[in-house]
Amino acid sequence: MSRTKVAIIGSGNIGTDLMIKVLRTAQHLEMGAMVGIDPSSDGLARAARMKVPTVHDGVEGLIRLPNFDEIEIVFDATSAKSHEYNASRLAPFGKRLIDLTPAAIGPYVIPAVNLDQHLDAPNVNMVTCGGQATIPVVAAISRVVPVPYAEIVASIASKSAGSGTRANIDEFTETTSAAITQVGGAQRGKAIIILNPAEPPLIMRDTVFALVDALEAAPDVASEIRRSIEKMVADVAVYVPGYRLKQQVQVTEIPEDQPVRTLLDADGRRPTHQVSVFLEVEGAAHYLPAYAGNLDIMTSAALQVAERLQEVNA
């Protein structure tokens, strides 16, 4: 099978880790260009040492590359604001864009959940690190029982949060919350991110709380939820090997006197049970430390999308 040439815009931590994944682990992709705006960045220096064509003047330099026509897929690992500009400049050239920022110009894609639904989209959005880690679990629950409300908390090592991540905190919460409903299937969603300053840095941890309804009518539903979540975790681990359950899935009854009136389901029923899921994401340490699972899950998911696009279009 022929290889598809790709370019990566953004020579920071995420872009550099993605480049190394393409070079070391991709089966159907090859690097066509590494694009940055800082000629002295470590990402561009590493790319040059690995014989990858480099550009230090952003998307404009990418467009001027002699081999630009050969590049079919462009990953954007910059920022939400920058992606808006990059997407507008690349739109006339028919490139497939995989957006690793929270810009959300294209449809949200979680590979284990809905990738095949968006194989024709010119620009797909990888949501956020917290979204990639937790939305598969929300989707697994909603496949078994309605989810009136789901809340996720992503805790990442402060050292793994670069300038792009810190600049996109608001976009993180907004994009992830929207994807919890649009992809995860919850009626309402909320996302929280925590930058943990602990030393030594801790591996990414994610928590999912989902309120569900009518378990009392079907005693075996709790077991079905657990099986659905366990299968989904295994599906994600295919492309993110460090993704795992931290402890057994908990399904607990909500006390009748606990106030949840604002979280009624679409039919006005009060949720009866809470599903609590605790996850851990360890990075592959291709470029970033193993504790930076938040960045690794983004690059691994983006690579999975590109590989699938190549298979379909080969």
UniProtKB/TrEMBL annotation:
EC number per UniProt: 1.2.1.10
Enzyme active site: 129
InterPro entries to which the protein is assigned, alphabetical: Acetaldehyde_dehydrogenase, Acetylaldehyde_DH_C, NAD(P)-bd_dom_sf, Semialdehyde_DH_NAD-bd
Domain of life: Bacteria
Bilayer-crossing regions: none
Semialdehyde dehydrogenase NAD-binding domain sequence ranges: 5-121
A Pfam family the protein falls into: Semialdhyde_dh
First-level EC class: oxidoreductase
Gene Ontology molecular function terms on file: acetaldehyde dehydrogenase (acetylating) activity
Annotated keywords: Aromatic hydrocarbons catabolism, NAD, Oxidoreductase
Catalytic activity: acetaldehyde + NAD(+) + CoA = acetyl-CoA + NADH + H(+)
Chain residues that bind NAD(+): 11-14, 294
Family: Belongs to the acetaldehyde dehydrogenase family.
Protein name: Acetaldehyde dehydrogenase
